[in-house]
Structures are given as C-alpha cells and as structure tokens.
Design goal:
heterodimer; A: 314 residues; 5-stranded mixed sheet; 13 helices; globular; B: 278 residues; alpha/beta; 5-stranded parallel sheet; two-stranded antiparallel sheet; 42% helix
Chain lengths: 314, 278
C-alpha cells in the first residue's frame, strides 16, 4: 500500500485551479469563509479579482455563483461538503440545475472527513441527493493526481457539477502523471474474473488493496474506479456483471442512494447478479477519526475482502 | 401623449393581457401580478436597455423576478415587446408549454428560473457583480415580494450587496402588504423594512409603486447613491386596477368567473382610454 504523499485532493484541486485561472480570467473561486479549509489562500492572494468571499452564507454562495455565471464566468463554489450539499440544496436545485447555469459545486472535507466533529459535519447523503438532479455531474476523485486531472476536465466542461473530496492526504491510486480521466467513464484498475469491486473516492485505494489480498487467495477480482457517479458508466457496470457475476460496491456514503444504489438500480433491471453494497449502514456513526470509523464499518481492505469472500460463498 | 400617459396606457393593456392569461388557464397569481404591473412596465418600457432580438446582448440591463409567481404580467410584457409571439400567451399552463407558472429560462428574455422565494436577490447580486467585473456599464434589477422578506437568503444577499458596494443593483420591493394567508404583518412582522435595509448598508427610497412619475425619476438615477445598492420600497395595492380585487386576500390566486372577467376588462379598457385621451 502506498504511503500518503502529503497532498490532499483539495490541495491538488486548488493548485490546478489557480494555474488555470492565471490564464483563464473567466474562472472564479467563490467561498463561504472556507478559504483555509479549501486551501484557497494562495488563490485569494494572487487573484483577488477572481476570488469572491460571501461569508458564512452557503445559500447565498450558490445564488451569487449562479448569477455570476450568467455573465460569462466559470464559477467554482468551494466549501465544506456537509453545508454545500444540505444548506444550499434548493439553490443548487433551482439556480444551478434547473436554470442550467455553469456552476461547479466543490464540497471539501466530505463524507466522514470531519469524523470526530459529529454528524453536523458529515456528508453521507450528498451523492444520493445530487445524482437525482438531471444533468448534475457527480464526481468523487480518489487521489491527488486524479484530482488534478478532474479539475482540468471540469474547467473545460459546460454545466453543473458536484464534486466531493476528502480532507486528508490519501495514498496514491495513480502512479503516473497522465492519469486517464474522462467524465462518465470508469477506470479499470485491475482485471479480474470472479467478482468486481466498484469503488469511488477515498474507497478506491482500499478496494484495490482488498483485490490484491484476494489475488493471493486465488480469487480474481476486477476493480473499477467509478469516479463519476452521475452520469454512471453503465457499460462498464454491465460488462462487470456479465463477465464476473458478482458485484461489491464501496463508498464513503450512506448505503442508501449512493454509488451502490445507482448500480443496484441498473443491475436489478438489466442484469441481476449477487451484489453487496458497502458503506455507512443504518446506525449512528461513532465518534472518531475517519480511519477508525472506516475500520469499524468494514470500509478498509480487510472488510472489503471479507465482503467479497462472503458474497462468493453465498 | 406624455410619457406618463403612454406608460399608463401600456399598463392597462398588460393588465388586460394578464387577466386573459389567468382566465384561459383557470389559474394564476392575480393579485400580485396586478400590484407589480406598473413597476414592470416602467422597467421594460422606460428604464431598461435590452435587445429583444438578441436576448443575451452582453451590455443589457438584467431583470430577475424574485416573486416568480407574479409571472403572468411578466410574460405579457415579454411577448408584447417581441421576445416571443403574443399568440403563445394562450398556451400558458398547457401540457408541454414553455410558459409555466413561474419564470423559466426556456422563455426568451427570462434570465433565471425562479419560483422558490428568496432566490432572486442572491442571483441578481451575482449578476451585478459580474457586470462590474466585466466592466459593463449596466444594471441588474430585481423585483421582490414582501412576503418573501421572511426568507433568510434575502438578508444574506442584502449583506453581500452592501459589502461589495454593488451600486449597479436595484431591488424593488412590491410592498402590497398581503401574502397568501393574510396581512404580512399578521403572518410575520416585516416592518420597519426601510430601516432594516438601511441598517444593512443600502440606499432606501420609499415611493408609491403606481406613480409612474416617481418610478421614472428614481429608476433614471444611475447610480442612485454611489457605492450602495438601492432598494425601492414601492407601496402598492394588491389587485391594482380592478376595483373589486384591490386589497382582497382571496385574489392572491383567485380566478375571475365570466362576469368578473368582463367587469375587470371593462374597467381596464376605461383606464386605457382615459390615459390615451389626455
């Protein structure tokens, strides 16, 4: 397993956004008193005319961004995912999705990143709500390099998107700098024939580690990085179901309505196969850092590999 | 004809149009559409700069209808100005129509979808900031209802607009005093509204929202107060122009029957003739 390289996804995102914004004056970073937690301090200092502060007012942040975008600006609204995906939901629904404005919602410190801060700061519902909006692209990048590639793709994309990334530096999934990243197209990280693990965001690395453990037990597991949950790469999911016969999904999200829900909706109607949805179950989340909570819920290499074994036995 | 009488005549005609729309669709927000007609007519037939054949002309003044339910008069104006064929007004509310009960960007001339209250001021502030960042000497106007002043998002945007000194932003408050369940002050105390906006850092002017002379004078000031967004607190009468609808809560979304419709049209015809004869 790779060690963290010290660069969280959010930092990779803001560095790339700044590099783009230095030459593309249409790019705007907008935040709700979260320049520190998003890591936008350097952007604010170097490009004050392309940086908008709205204060602690997340509804307004999205409304302002939508208005700004109609004047030809490509606006990235950046703040903690827990607030942007709940407090601002109606503005996202109406001012962004329904009005078809070119606004990117960047939720940082998502999922269980703020573990010990409590449920107020968790965002385990965001994928479920965002993916029900027609035309809302939903992306969970898994590491530093993918976050950079994703930022380039988002800046070039017209239309609304929701991105959720974590707070902490995470181990690399991608080892090279030309990371394949096409919005809506899953990346095949490992070939396999007995089962497929489909993961998104910070769960991709443990999914890959689980597959490696299982390989030593002669269990051949395919691993898909489903960085884009909406639109879902239906072809990759259906191929995985047909060719490997078993599907395990892994996400830092409620087990309801997220990546697992999206894949279950597809497979139960078009190609049912035995399936497990791994995520945060219906129970209170204990206090603790995200690593400990992940372990508690089996969202690590050990838990994921156990789920695959159990599915293959059943 | 004087400019004032020209606007009065247009306002009467658009009130007839909007009642026809509501009558045809058997539904609509009659009272608020009538209270805001004179403000919309002043903006669209006197104040704002735009090109109907080029709705996204970058230098245009922009308008956002925050009280999106008062859409019928807005559609009547956009059609009359040539943004879309006037015959399309008869499709309002029909299956598959683009003219629906709240403004939609599918309709040429509409800048932003609205309908949920408290959204207009934030998006208008964003537009005004964008105009300034782009170096465009144009303004953004937003028409708000009074009932929606209870929405917190309005006050978030009020703070933002003052902080960013958006003196190209003009908010007009259709202060008709009534909302769906009764008097605004019975439902939720809003007053002193002028003081509240002043305390938030806005320039505030109170006026009669049916006085074209006053509206023209105010809206022609550009900017009204340097470095401050402007709130026009426009005292209006819900149901204005139709005597039996004026200040009656049930006309918030009341639909006239045949006799009421004919009586209303006769009143408005008379107003239009009077304006044109002066």
């Amino acid at each position: 397993m790779s060690a963290p390289n010290g660069i969280p996804c959010r930092k990779a995102f803001t560095e790339t956004l700044l590099a783009l914004a230095l030459t593309d004056r249409s790019l705007i970073a907008l935040t709700s008193d979260a320049r520190g937690s998003v890591t936008l301090d350097e952007f604010a200092k170097r490009l004050p005319d392309q940086f908008v502060e709205v204060g602690i007012a997340e509804q307004n942040a999205v409304g302002i961004a939508a208005g700004l975008s109609t004047t030809g600006r490509n606006v990235f609204v950046c703040g903690p995912a827990c607030f942007l995906s709940a407090r601002s939901l109606e503005q996202i629904k109406i001012d962004v999705v329904y009005s078809k404005t070119n606004v990117k919602i960047i939720g940082v410190s998502g999922g269980l990143s703020y573990g010990a801060l409590g449920f107020s700061h968790h965002s385990l519902h965001d994928v479920a709500v965002m993916r029900t909006f027609t035309d809302m692209t939903v992306i969970l990048p898994c590491d530093e390099r993918q976050s950079r590639a994703m930022t380039l793709a988002l800046a070039a994309m017209e239309g609304p998107a929701y991105v959720r990334m974590g707070r902490n530096a995470v181990p690399d999934v991608y080892e090279v700098d030309d990371v394949p990243f096409v919005i809506g197209q899953a990346n095949l990280l490992q070939a396999g024939t007995d089962a497929t693990i489909i993961a998104a965001g910070e769960m991709v690395r443990p999914a890959l580690d689980a597959a490696k453990r299982l390989a030593s037990e002669e269990i051949s597991v395919r691993v898909l990085d489903m960085h884009t949950i909406n639109p879902l790469d239906r072809k990759a999911v259906l191929e995985a179901a047909k060719e490997t016969g078993h599907i395990v999904t892994v996400e830092e999200h409620s087990i309801h309505g997220g990546l697992g829900g999206a894949i279950a909706e597809l497979l139960c109607q078009e190609y049912p196969v035995p399936m497990r949805i791994l995520g945060v179950p219906d129970m209170p989340v204990p206090a603790g850092n995200s690593k400990d909570v992940f372990h508690y819920f089996g969202l690590d290499a050990g838990g994921i590999s156990a789920a695959v074994r159990s599915l293959l036995r059943s | 004809m004087t400019e004032i009488n020209r606007l009065k005549s247009i306002a009467a005609a658009r009130r007839i149009d909007l009642l026809r729309i509501i009558r045809n669709a058997h539904g609509g927000h009659t009272g608020g559409a009538l209270s805001s007609t004179d403000i919309l007519v002043t903006l669209y037939y006197h104040t704002m700069r735009f090109k109907t054949k080029e709705p996204s002309w970058p230098d245009r003044d922009r308008f956002v209808l925050s009280k999106g339910h008062s859409v019928e008069g807005y559609y009547a104006i956009l059609a009359d100005l040539g943004y879309f064929p006037k015959a399309e007004l008869d499709t309002y509310g029909q299956f598959g129509a683009r003219l629906i009960g709240h403004p939609s960007v599918k309709v040429p001339g509409v800048e932003m979808n609205t309908g949920a209250l408290g959204h207009g001021l934030p998006v208008a502030a964003g537009m005004a900031l964008g105009q300034r960042l782009n170096g465009i000497d144009a303004r953004t106007f937003v028409l708000m209802g009074d009932g929606e002043q209870a929405e917190g998002s309005i006050w978030e945007a009020a703070m933002f607009a003052a902080h960013h000194r958006l003196d190209n932003l003009v908010a007009i408050l259709d202060r008709n005093g009534l909302q769906i369940s009764g008097s605004t002050e019975d439902i939720m105390t809003l007053e002193p509204l002028a003081d509240k906006y002043r305390a938030f850092g806005w320039a505030v002017v109170e006026t009669d929202g049916h006085d074209f002379d006053a509206l023209i004078t105010l809206l022609d000031c550009k900017p009204h107060t340097s470095g401050k967004p402007l709130l026009i607190l426009a005292r209006t009468i819900k149901g204005k122009g139709v005597s039996f609808m004026q200040n009656v809560v049930k006309w918030h979304h009341g639909v006239p029957d045949d006799a009421q419709y004919l009586a209303a049209i006769q009143e408005l015809d008379q107003l239009q003739k009077e304006a044109e004869q002066v």
